[in-house]
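My current task is to audit a protein record that another person submitted. Thanks in advance; the entry in question is below:
***
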Amino acid sequence: MTGDNYPTWVCQACGCKYGRMLNMGMHMSTWHNGTCDICGNQAAVTEPRDFGHLKPEWVNERKERCNGS
């Protein structure tokens, strides 16, 4: 599931919370310092695919952040 609003960069906390992959095991990913497109925090971020892509619930967190809740 991708689209114009789908996150490009995800921090570890959001990836673990909203990712579809339960056990990353020996999966390799590339991280850099940036802004998480879900929570808005400055952190080490990677692509959503490194968490098995995202469950639809990520949209709710972004809406709450954008609404100032």
In short: Residues 10-66 form one domain. The chain has one domain: 10-66. Strands lie at 10-11, 32-35, 42-46. The mean pLDDT is 87.
